[in-house]
Amino acid sequence: MEKNQFFMFFTIVLSIQVLVNLYITIRGYQALEAFPKVRPWFIAFMVIATFAYFLGRTLEKSMYNALTVSLHWLGAFWFAVMLYATLQLLLIDLARLVDLAVPFIRKMAGNNYPLFKFRTGLVVAAITFVVVLAGHINAWHPKTVHVQLNIPKDAGPADSLRIVAVSDIHLGTIIGPRKTAKLVQTVNALNPDIILLAGDVLDEDVGPVIRQNLGDSLTKLKAPLGIFACTGNHEYIGGGEPSIQYLMQHGIKVLRDSAVLINDAFYLIGREDRSAKGRLRKERKSIVQLLKDIDTSKPVILLDHQPYHLDEVANTGVDLQISGHTHHGQLWPFGYITNRIYEVSRGYKQKGTTHFYVSTGFGTWGPPVRTGNRPEVVVFSLKFNATH
User: Fold this and answer.
1) Angle (deg, nearest 10), helices 66-101 and 113-139
2) Can you tell me whether residue 230 is helix, strand or coil?
3) What is the pLDDT of residues 121-171, one digit of tens each?
4) Residues 6+ apart with CB under 8 A from 28
5) Do the Cβ atoms of 276 and 293 come closer than 8 Å?
6) CA distance 313 to 353
7) Prior bond of 333 cis (ω within 30°)
8) For residue range 264-305, what is the model confidence (pLDDT) as tens digits?
9) Helices 3-31 & 113-139 angle (0-180, nearest 10)
10) Residue 204: helix, strand or coil by DSSP?
11) The model's pTM
């Protein structure tokens, strides 16, 4: 992403962040009418919470300590709190509009309207807390998805292949040693022939990954045919080369617009992420260019982080494309938005002779919370048969 594009994106996000939190602050201030001494503390907390994520992410580039980590965690959780508090406040304001035509709120409140507002605020806070907590617990418990596919091609010495695929791990301050160890344990227990990582292995800045030595866990991933990855947009948000080199140094072969013939049985292609253009100042290779020197009579598996333009891949000789990126919105109701943006926001689809799978991902971006879906590890059981 070019600097001016990033600055524009950052400005828009920060503006939305400030406006939403201003709305929550105003409504919270009103709810505290019965307890005026609490109001200054509430405002102080809201200021900290509003800017915690941006402060934490910025400060941890130069120092990594309890303060920056705490700000990062607070700010990350606060994104989810903002969403679910705001949805409830909007419903309450809708009820207030109805109340103008059909008065009912004052009747419910009785003689002590300030106390009624405070209790309503407590209900909003309690519901938000329960939803965010449940989403956090859900984010820590990935499911295993099994996908069985027949590939009607000759794979030489192989008649089957067991792939364990993971996308969107987002290693960093939030996805730290415990979650990384859980990933390794889960993947290795599935006895993969090959492990494929479909982009966004790292979150953004590689600094927290290095400081927590998360690469040590990555070296414990085991598969006889190797561990391969493609780049994702977050590898490039984190600077590109430092993130990619870190993965390579810890046993992960990153395929960047390149292909490899594995065990004389099948081809694996890794595409550069779409966002690489802003960093590398050049277009990534087209599917036609990537397949130019490949014998497509053999099975071809493609890693492409962002699942755009599936028609460009269908019926080209690629048998399976594995993607991620969408998180299927991660937080409800954003999955409805990703369904409109992507032909496949999550799960499986076949187009012509090509199979597509978009994973909801293993980790999280921003809040360590999932309310729209489960995180997942995907096991592909491929059967090869030239006469199928």
Assistant:
1) 130
2) strand
3) 999 999 999 999 999 999 999 999 999 999 999 999 899 999 999 999 999
4) 42, 46, 121
5) no
6) 10
7) yes
8) 999 999 999 998 887 777 789 999 999 999 999 999 999 999
9) 140
10) coil
11) 0.92
